[in-house]
Amino acid sequence: MEFTGDIFALEPPANRKFSLIGATLPSSKDVYFRSKQKEIIEQYSAARIFMYNTENTDFDYWFNRVDHDDAQRYFELTFKGYFYEIALIYYNIVVDLSWTACYLAAEFALTQKGARVNFGGIQPIEDAYKLMRAAENLVSNPTAEENPFEYLKVMCPEFSTAIDMIIDFWKEFGSSNIRQRYNFCKHKGKPLYEELAQFSGPRFIGFYKETHDGNREQLASDQRDVRLQCSLSDSIEELRQFDNMQLFPYISKLFGELERVLSPSDFV
Q1: Residues 65-83: pLDDT tens digits?
Q2: Are strands 192-193 and 229-230 parallel, antiparallel or unpaired?
Q3: DSSP states of 61-117 as a string?
Q4: Given a cut of 80, is residue 184 above it in pLDDT?
Q5: How far apart are CA 262 and CA 256, in angstroms?
Q6: Whether 182 contacts 88, CB under 8 Å
Q7: The most confident of 18-27, 35-44, 63-72, 132-141, by mean pLDDT
Q8: In 137-231, which ranges are continuous DSSP H helix?
Q9: Angle at which helices 160-173 and 248-262 pack, to 10 degrees?
Q10: In this structure, what DSSP letter does residue 11 have?
Q11: Which residues, 6 or more positions from 209, have their beta carbon under 8 angstroms from its beta carbon?
C-alpha cells in the first residue's frame, strides 16, 4: 500500500538551530501546540500501520492456519476487517485532534471560577496540565453552535486562516462515508462486509407478503437483512484515497499555518 505524504514531514522543522542568543522561552501555547502536534503524528502513524496490515498475507501471528480453504479465507477477511476498522477509528481521531491543536495554539482566555486565565507565558506544570485538560473539553464539532472557533476568530484574528481550514475541511468531511462509517462503528454496530457475507450460506427460510399491486415483498427474517453491508476492499481503498487526497494535505497545511503564526520557541 502506497501513501503520497510522508508522516515524518509533519514533524517540527528539522533545521532549527538552538542558541541562547536571542532565543525565546516557550510559552504555554507553544507547549500545547507541540504536544498536540506530536499526538496527531503518533495517531496518524497508527492509522497507517493498520492500513498496511489490511494487505497482510501472513496471518500465522493472528490465528492458527486451518486446512479448509474457505475457512482460512474467512478468517483472513475477518482480520482484514478488524484492521480496516481500527485504521478508520485512528483516522477520525486525527481529524478530531486537529481541532484541539488549533484551539490550544490560540492565545485564548477561558474563565475558571470567574477569573480569566491566559494561556500565554510560562506556567507551573500542574497548572498547565489542568488548563490543557479544561480547554480540551471546550472543543467540539467545528460547525456546532457552542464551538468557540468563531469567538477565537474575533479574539485572535491571526488564527483565522487556520480556523477556516478546519471549518472548510469539516464541512466536506462531516457528511462523508468515512465519517458516517466511523460513527456507525462507534455508536451503532459492525458492518457486514460483502466479502464475508458470501460465507454465511443460504437463508434457512424466507417469508413474503403480497403487496397491493400484486407483487411479493420479502420480509426481514435473517440477521443479514438489517445489517449495514458494504464492500471491504472498496472501503479500504476509499480510506487510502482519503489519506492521500484529503487528510494529509489538510494536516500538513494546518501545521504549516500554525507554525507560521506561532513561531514556537526552539526549546519546545
Answers
A1: 888 888 899 899 999 999 9
A2: parallel
A3: TTS---S-HHHHHHHHHHHHHHHHHHHHHHHHHHHHHHHHHHHHHS--EEEETTEEE
A4: yes
A5: 10
A6: yes
A7: 35-44
A8: 149-155, 160-173, 177-187, 194-197
A9: 160
A10: S
A11: 216, 217, 219
Q: What is the pTM of this model?
A: 0.84
Between 65 and 268, the higher pLDDT residue: 65
Cβ–Cβ under 8 Å, residues 23 and 266: yes
Instruction: Give the model confidence (pLDDT) of 222-245 as tens digits.
Output: 666 556 688 999 999 999 999 999
The residue type found at 167 is I
Using CA atoms, how far apart are residues 139 and 120, in angstroms rounded to an integer?
A: 19
The answer to whether residue 211 scores a pLDDT higher than 90 is no
| 89-114 per-position pLDDT tens digit | 999 999 999 988 888 777 543 333 33
Euclidean distance between CA atoms 158 and 166, whole angstroms: 14
How many Å apart are CA 103 and CA 58, to the nearest integer? Answer: 42
Measured CA distances, 258 to 12, 30, 66, 71, 253 (Å):
11, 10, 52, 51, 9
Buried residues in 120-133 as b, exposed as e (16+ CB within 10 A): eeebeeeebeebbe
More confident of the two residues 184 and 213: 184
Confirm if 242 and 172 have CB atoms less than 8 A apart.
no
Q: Quick check: helix, strand or coil at residue 175?
A: coil
Contact between 264 and 33 under an 8 Å Cβ cutoff? The reply is yes
- Residue with the three cell numbers 474457505: 70
